Amino acid sequence: MLEIMAFTGIDVKGPGRACLDTLPGGGYDATSMTVLVFLKDLAIATATQMASLFAGIFVFGLLIHFISHLTFKSLEKSFGSRGVYFVAWLGTPIHELGHALFCVIFLHKIAEIRFFKPDPLTGTLGYVYHKWSRTNPWQVLGNFFIGIGPVVLGCAVLFATFYFLVPDSARVWHSITLGMNGVDSRQELAGYLAIFRDASLSLVRLIFNPSHLAEWRFWVFLYLSICVASNIRLSPSDIKGALSGLGCIVLPFLLLNLVGLITGAGAGKFFPYTASSLGLVYSLLLLALVMVLVGFVLTYLVAAVYYRLKYRGVLSPF
């Protein structure tokens, strides 16, 4: 059994050949063109489904990562390398636990784990070393979920914090999910942006209702959610690990589309779902995005004032 060691901080081989008959003057005959059209339809259907399911999540992830990076940079420039501990002491253990949880589910062997062990030289705050077998499809698939584990667990913890600490959270959450369920992959970009804009503004208004400011639970939620949301971001090693298992995600879609096209049922027959099926996921990611943005604004203001007093300059978060 071939075992692979991976650091998370965070091949199916075989002969394949297609024979296409060419006409004397060049080009393909009718049969060959049919094969080409079939393969094109198969590729387009699969790519469309992948984009429908994951494009929005990918964009959210990039935004969260970028804003979180600004938060860490601001804290580090003002208060030194230990300044990031302000948000990392809680968020990093949850981040690493997200990796470890899926290591267990997908039968990876955890060789070493450190939930919070800052290394000033490398900038690493925690890590999980795990082993898996390249010949085990279940374990290969697990790489994808292990890589995105911090996002999954981070959003779950963020929601729990929101649900138990934000006053009138049930009504607030219902309002957000109702708006996000309107997301549809068939919409144009302007439609997407309008839905996310309206949902974001609604979320901010409902969470930061003036009546909540007198509630101690709101302030606890604010701090804890900033800690968690700021550490949902994925490191390069996390992304690399997730991509190594992506093929096992694509393959089932490819096979179902293949059956659908061969039987004449169409690709959508076996997978009729679109981005609208991910309303709950988008709602969680929107909550994470809003809180990481709020966290950046608040931490930057504090860090910028301190930086101004100490260094007599303007703090750049970049």
- Coarse structural class: mainly alpha
Q: What is the assembly state of the chains in this entry? A: single chain
The average pLDDT is 82
Helix residue percentage:
55-70%
Report on the biggest sheet: 3 strands, antiparallel
What is the rounded Rg? 23 Å
Question: Key terms for this structure?
Answer:
globular; single chain; 3 strands; 9 helices; mainly alpha; 318 residues; 3-stranded antiparallel sheet
How are the SSEs placed, and which strands pair?
Blueprint: E1 3-8, H1 30-79, H2 85-105, E2 109-114, E3 127-133, H3 137-165, H4 169-180, H5 189-207, H6 216-229, H7 236-244, H8 247-263, H9 279-311
Antiparallel strand pairs: 1-3, 2-3
Helix pairs in contact: 1-8, 1-9, 2-3, 2-6, 3-6, 3-7, 3-9, 4-5, 4-9, 6-9
What would your notes on this structure say?
The protein has about 325 residues and is mainly alpha-helical. The chain has one domain (about 30-310). It has nine helices and three strands; from the N terminus they run βααββααααααα. It has helices at about 30-80, 85-105, 135-165, 170-180, 190-205, 215-230, 235-245, 245-265, 280-310, and strands spanning about 5-10, 110-115, 125-135. Strands 1-3-2 form a three-stranded antiparallel beta sheet. Residues about 10-30 have low confidence and may be disordered.
Explain briefly what this protein structure is:
By secondary structure, the chain is mainly α. The protein is built from nine helices and three strands; from the N terminus they run βααββααααααα.
